[in-house]
Amino acid sequence: VWSIAGGHGRLGVISGLSGHYCQNCNRLRLTCDGRLRPCLYSDKEYRLRQLIRSPKAGDEQLLKVLRLALARKPMGHKLLSERTRNAVCAKAMTAIGG
Q: ∠ at Cα 90 (47, 74), nearest 5°?
């Protein structure tokens, strides 16, 4: 875990492939193209970049999307247990940020 002196927050690296932690996951992921993913192993995404860049969008709209993503976050490790040799999601981990 890294932090900047005087800054807010921390940055950490999560190893989702070598150490599955789905049953305790409390993370959301922001992709490099501005999409929010509630689950590393799901293709469900919420577009944040357009919302953040829109001069008409306010904090309430952003909070609404964040709350929706959290409410729809899969619980447990159902996606991993259904996993076969095929990928669970369409995007590569490098595109997701995982």
A: 65
The answer to whether the CB of 14 falls within 8 A of the CB of 81 is: no
- Rounded to the nearest angstrom, the gap between the alpha carbon of residue 93 and the centroid of all alpha carbons in its chain is 12
Number of alpha carbons in the 13 Å side-chain half-sphere of residue 95? 9
Provide the residue ranges of all domains of the chain, joining segments of one domain with +.
22-96
The letter for the amino acid at 7 is G
Decide if pLDDT at 18 tops 60.
no
CA dist 69 and 45 (Å) reads: 8
Phi, psi of 45 (to 5 degrees): -135, 155
Q: Is the pTM of this model over 0.70?
A: no
CA angle 68, 74, 76 (to 5 degrees): 145
